[in-house]
Amino acid sequence: MSAAFKPGRCFLFRLAKGADIHERLNAFCRRNKVRCAAITVIGATEEVRLGYYDQNRRKYFNRAFKGDMEILSCVGNLTLKDGEPFAHLHAVMGDSKLRVRGGHLFPGSKVFAAEVYLHELRGRELVRRPDLQTGLALWPGPFKD
Question: What is the pLDDT of residues 39-67, one digit of tens each?
Answer without folding.
Answer: 999 999 999 999 999 999 999 999 999 99
